[in-house]
Specification:
Structural class: alpha/beta
Order of helices and strands: HEHEHEHHHEEEEHHEHHEHHEEHHHHHHH
Number of helices: 19
Strand order of the largest sheet: 2-1-3-11-6
Distance between the termini: 30 Å
Largest sheet: 5 strands, mixed
CATH class of the largest domain: Alpha Beta
Oligomer: single chain
CATH superfamily of the largest domain: Periplasmic binding protein-like II
CATH topology of the largest domain: D-Maltodextrin-Binding Protein, domain 2
Shape: globular
Strand content: 5-15%
């Protein structure tokens, strides 16, 4: 209660107002610097830190906004929560020229799609995230797997390659949390399907559930194959984005294949000679990257789409200032700083082509990231996404129990019941 009172006081009637910007923990140092540089003679921007988990971030913001909190001026939102917040009337849409600035032709397709709801621009893309396949070049060579930025491979090929080399593994995110749904969703889209029919997804509770499909069975088959192989990592059922990092460059052993987000490159480049990182620059050179694996051979994969969008709270007492600030913290210059300093990649193509990024990252990696975002697959764009994600997690976890013959059908029926409020999570 004391905290809420103090925050409300920040936007008092006297003096220059302070805009509260709720951020997630990624990139705190650069975001704090952006808050300072984007403050003006008319307003200041103050950072307020959200919890680490995307689910907990959503919960805290939703509670504030449901209560009509006027101290929530700016917020960093996981893209999957934008439809829910916009549908509830918690986000102030950008109009006219400001909307055109937020969503011009420079914004990549997948990030641009995440900030639109019912023909309105309801948030501004700040940074965009996607996954690629990271691997040891020496491991791929030993396994006889031809792979590279321009050489696509399938999940079957990756699992078989790891299976063929003693000690090699495949790193994924399969704990019971949001990133597991990211994996399932991308596997399904790579097989030509979706969790919900894209034509009806914005119908909310009346959306058509399409989990029980050939694509759902193909996704389940990949998870089952990895679970039954020798390539699983010891913490497979509780794995997350961080658990696989140390297995790329073990003290002895061949390393791994790993699907993970863009932060991985800077993580390894910044830990050369340290525990868990490459032993030296030569070992860092052994790090390879390729497009997200295909679910079905010959069908283009649909890499995951994530990142952060900046929303303006509809109850803010300083809406014009807040939207102006949102444009500043999502500018090309701001996105370049986040990419170079924090490994949080841009949502704008021009920033990938900027001198700062060309100097900081290998050219083929930048091209791989931007092309993956241009053709990536978003998760269901629904105001009921939290329920959708929770229902999928409850029936697909543990991954060791996933069965193509039963899991898609059972999960589809449960999701229908949840959306119709005939079942609870």
């Amino acid at each position: 209660m004391l905290s809420a009172g103090l925050l409300s006081a920040c936007g008092g009637d006297e003096g220059k107002p302070t805009l509260n910007w709720y951020i997630n923990p990624d990139g705190q140092e650069t975001l704090t610097a952006l808050a300072e540089s984007c403050s003006t003679d008319q307003y200041d921007i103050a950072i307020q830190l959200l919890p680490a988990s995307a689910t907990d971030q959503r919960t805290q913001l939703a509670r504030r906004l449901a209560a009509g909190d006027s101290s929530t001026d700016l917020m960093s939102l996981d893209p999957v929560f934008v439809p829910e917040f916009a549908n509830a009337g918690w986000l102030e849409p950008f109009d006219g020229e400001m909307a055109d600035q937020v969503l011009d032709d420079d914004v990549l397709a997948a990030p641009g799609e995440t900030v639109q709801w019912e023909d309105q621009v309801v948030a501004a893309p700040q940074w965009a995230n996607t996954q690629v396949l990271w691997y040891r070049k020496s491991l791929a060579e030993e396994a006889g797997l031809e792979i590279g930025p321009d050489t696509p491979v399938t999940w079957d090929q990756v699992i078989d390659a790891a299976d063929s080399v003693e000690g090699a593994t495949v790193g994924v995110q399969a704990n019971r949390y949001e990133a597991y749904v990211v994996w399932i969703n991308s596997l399904m889209q790579g097989a030509g399907g979706n969790i919900l029919d894209p034509e009806t997804v914005e119908d909310g509770k009346d959306a058509e559930v399409t989990l029980d499909s050939d694509a759902g069975r193909a996704a389940a088959a990949v998870i089952q194959k990895l679970a039954d192989s020798s390539a699983t990592q010891p913490d497979f059922t509780t794995s997350n984005e961080g658990t696989s990092l140390g297995r790329m460059f073990p003290a002895d052993g061949p390393g791994e294949f790993m699907v993970n987000w863009t932060f991985v490159y800077q993580n390894y480049a910044g830990t050369v000679g340290q525990t868990g990182g490459p032993a030296d620059e030569a070992q860092l050179e052994d790090l390879g990257w390729a497009r997200y694996p295909q679910t079905v051979e010959g069908e283009e994969s649909r890499p995951p789409v994530g990142g952060i969008d900046i929303g303006v709270g509809a109850y803010s007492e300083n809406l014009d200032f807040a939207q102006e600030a949102a444009l500043c913290v999502t500018s090309p210059e701001a996105q370049a700083q986040l990419a170079v300093n924090e490994g949080l990649m841009p949502s704008r193509q021009s920033v990938y082509d900027s001198p700062e990024l060309v100097e900081a990252y290998p050219a083929d990696l930048l091209e791989l990231w931007s092309s993956s975002l241009e053709t990536g697959g978003p998760r269901p764009k629904s105001a009921f996404y939290s329920q959708i994600s929770g229902a999928v997690q409850s029936r697909w976890h543990s991954p060791t129990n996933v069965d193509p013959d039963t899991t898609p059908e059972e999960s589809a029926e449960f999701l229908r019941q949840v959306l119709k409020t005939e079942a609870i999570l």
